[in-house]
Amino acid sequence: MSSTNQVTVDRGIETLLQSVTDYVVAINRNYEVIMANDLFRNEFVAGPDARCYQLWRRRENKCEGCVVAKSFEDGKLHVSEEKVIMKDGRIALMRVESIPVRNIKGEIICVFEIATDITRRRDLEKRLSGEGAGVDPILTERIASLQKSEEKYRTIFERSRDTIVLTDSSGRILDINQAGVKTLGYDSKDELLALGFLKVMFERDKDLADIQRKVSREGVIANFESRIVGKNGCIFDALITSNVILDRIGEITGYALIITDITRAKNAYKEIEKRNLRLHALNSISWTVSSSLDLSEVLQRTIDMILDILELGCVRIYLMEQERSELRLAGHKGLSKEFISRLEIQRRGVGDGFLGRAAEQGKIKVIDNLAHCSDPYISPVIEEGLRSTVYIPLISHGESVGVMAVSSQSPFKFSEDYVEFLSAIGAQIGVAVHNAHLYERLRRAYEELRDAQEQVQRTEKLASLGKLAATIAHEINNPIASILTYTRLIMKLIGRNQFKPEKLQDISRYLGVMESETKRCGEIVKNLLAFSRQSDPSVEPHSIGEIIERTLPLIEHELSLKGIQLIKMIPDSLPLLLCDLRQIQQALLNLMMNAAEAMTDGGTLAVEARLSDKQKFIEIRISDTGIGIPKEHIKDIFVPFFTTKEEGKGVGLGLSVVYGIITRHGGSIEVESEEGNGSMFIVSLPTC
C-alpha cells in the first residue's frame, strides 16, 4: 500500500475488516489506497501509490460521480452501484458505500469504501422476473454461500481474544463472544444476555452516550477509553472500538463494539511511570550530591524528593558522630515540633532500639506495624501517629555512617521495590556524607596551608626588612650627618655671638638643608613602617604608579651604592588596580631587590607599567641587565625553598611569596631570562 499520508488504524478495526465478507479499502484525499482487507488484496493487486480507480476499474482518471470525493466534500455516507474488473477478467457489479472517517478534531482523514458483490443477486432478480427456470439451483448455491460466510464470521467472532458485543439500535445486547463472557466474569452467555441493555456494562452512562453519538455521526469510533463493569461489580479499564450496523437503505440497525481490557497495560504503564519517577529522583539526588558540598542542603532536598514521590508521611535522617558512639538527627520533615524536640529523638546511641541497631549492623529493618513491636523508644513514635517505618542504613565505602527512617502515618506495607528504592537513596546519602567529610578535611588542610603561607610571607617580609635595615641605615646616616654638622655650625655661631646680619643668609641656608634632610629621613622611615606594618588584607582601588613610587625609595640607596641606573616608564592614564597595597608593594620590592642583587657591577633597572594585551589587565615589567637565570632553573624559581644563592644569603622563599601574592589577586607572573643577559619579570594584575 502507499506510504503517503498513512493513517493509523486501531487493531480492533482491522480485526473487523478482516472478518467481513465484503471488499473494504481505506482511501486518502489523493485517492490512494492506504489500507485494505485480505479479500481486497487477493482480488486486486495493488502496487506502490496505486489509486482506487486504477485498481477497481483499470482507469487512469478519476471516475465521474465518485462517491469517495462526495464523502470528502460533504462528510456523509454515499451509496452507488458500479462495475469493476475482477482478477480473472470478469466484470462484477458492486454495491459501494463510502463512509468518512474523522480524527478527534473532526477532520476527515480518510474514506472507507465497502463493496458488496451483487452480481449474482442482480442475475437472480432477472431470472425471477423472467421464466423462472433454474431458480432452485441458484437459490441453493446462494444459501450455501451465505452459510459459508456466516460460519467464517462466527469463527472469527468466537475466536477473538477481545470482547465483541453486538446490539440493536436501542442498545439491547444481541450477542457477545466467549472472550467477552470470560472477561466480564459471567458463567455463560445467557447470563450476560439477560442483563438486557449495554449500559449496565458501563461505569459511567455518559461514556456509552458519547460512543453512540459519535459512532452514529461518524460511522466508526476508535480507542475510546472507559471503565467496564463485570459480574459482582468488578471494574476494569478498557479501550473501545465501535461501528454502526446499517441496513440496505443506510439506516442504523445496531452497533458492534470491540472491548479490549487494558487494565494490565495501564498498570504496567503506571509501574513504568513510577519507576521513571524514581529513576529521575535518584538522578536528581545524584546530581545534588555531586554539585553541592553543603550536606544540610543535600539531606533536605533528598527528604523532599522522597516525600513527593512515595507520598509517605515523614522522614528522619541520623548521622554518626565522629566517635561513632552516638547518632545525631541531621534532617527531618513531616513531624511535630514536640516529637522532634524530645532528647531520645534528637540523639540515639548506636545499637539502641531499631534505629540504633540498623546503624550498628548496617542492615535494613522493616516494621509494618509499630504498635505490635517491642522497642524502648516506641512510645513517642506511636504517640506521633506513626504506623509503620523502614530503617535504611547509610553506607559509605562499606561502613555505616547513619540511618534514614521513613515512616507512614497510615497502615502501609513497604514492598520490596519501595525498600530497594530507599536503599538506593541511602547509598547516595552515604556518598554525600563521605564527600562532606572529605570537604571538611580539605577545608581544614587549606586553612592550615593558608596560615603557613601567611607565616612564610611574614618571614620573607622580615627577611626583606633585614636587608632593608642595612641599606636604610646607610641612607639615613648621610642626612643625619648633614643635620649634625649644620647643627654644630649654628651652635658655634651662637656661642661666639656671631648673629650678625651678614651671617643670617648662611644660617638660613643651614636651616634649609637641615629641614630637607630631616624630611628625607622621615619619608624613608614612613615607607619602611608602612611596608613592615602587620594588618589584615585590604583590597581597595590603588594607582600602580603610586605603589611603585612608594616602593622605590626603599631601595634607592642600594641602587646608588651599586651604581645601578633606574629607568621608570609609568603613564599617568593607567586604570586603577583593585588590590592590597602593602602586599603588591612587598611583591614589587622583592622583584626589585632580586634585580639589584643580580647586578653586582652596576647596570640598569627598568620599571615599566602599561596596559596588557588581555582586556582589563595591567602589566608591570621589572627588568635588569644582571647575570640572568640558567635555563634549567627557570621552571623552579617560584618553588618554595628553591635558591641558587650561597648558604646564608637566602632560603628561596622570596619568589614563592611573590607568586602567592600575585595569584591571590587574580593575576599572573612570568619570567623571561637568558643567562648572562639579564632577566625580565612580567606581572599581570586585573584592573577595577
List the helices and strands and how they pair.
Blueprint: H1 11-19, E1 23-27, E2 33-36, H2 38-43, H3 52-57, H4 67-74, E3 78-85, E4 91-102, E5 108-117, H5 119-129, H6 135-159, E6 163-168, E7 173-176, H7 178-183, H8 189-193, H9 205-218, E8 220-229, E9 235-246, E10 252-261, H10 263-291, H11 295-310, E11 314-320, E12 326-333, H12 337-341, H13 343-346, E13 347-349, H14 353-361, E14 365-367, H15 378-383, E15 388-396, E16 399-408, H16 416-495, H17 501-532, E17 539-542, H18 544-551, H19 556-561, E18 564-569, E19 577-580, H20 581-597, E20 603-611, E21 617-623, H21 654-664, E22 668-673, E23 679-686
Parallel strand pairs: 18-20
Antiparallel strand pairs: 1-2, 1-5, 3-4, 4-5, 6-7, 6-10, 8-9, 9-10, 11-12, 11-16, 12-13, 14-15, 15-16, 17-19, 20-21, 21-23, 22-23
Helix pairs in contact: 5-6, 10-11, 10-16, 11-16, 16-17, 18-20, 20-21
Summarize this entry quickly.
With 688 residues, the protein is α+β, with helices and mostly antiparallel strands. The protein is 45% helix and 24% strand.
Unreliable spans are: 1-6, 131-135
Count of the domains:
4
Percent range for helical residues? 40-55%
Number of helices: 21
Helix and strand content put the structural class at alpha+beta
Relevant CATH superfamily of the largest domain: GAF domain
Report the β-strand fraction as a percent range: 15-25%
The count of DSSP E runs of length 2 or more, i.e. the number of strands, is: 23
Rounded to the nearest angstrom, the distance between the terminal CA atoms is 73 Å
Tell me what the structure shows.
The protein has 688 residues and is α+β, with helices and mostly antiparallel strands. It has four domains: 107 residues, PAS domain (Beta-Lactamase), CATH 3.30.450; 102 residues, PAS domain (Beta-Lactamase); 172 residues, GAF domain (Beta-Lactamase, 2-Layer Sandwich), CATH 3.30.450.40; 153 residues, Heat Shock Protein 90. Helices cover 45% and strands 24% of the residues. The protein contains 21 helices and 23 strands. Strands 13-12-11-16-15-14 form a six-stranded antiparallel β-sheet. A five-stranded antiparallel β-sheet has the order 2-1-5-4-3, with helices on both faces. Strands 7-6-10-9-8 form a five-stranded antiparallel β-sheet, with helices on both faces. Strand 11 and strand 12 form a beta hairpin. The longest helix has 80 residues. The protein is elongated and about 170 Å long.
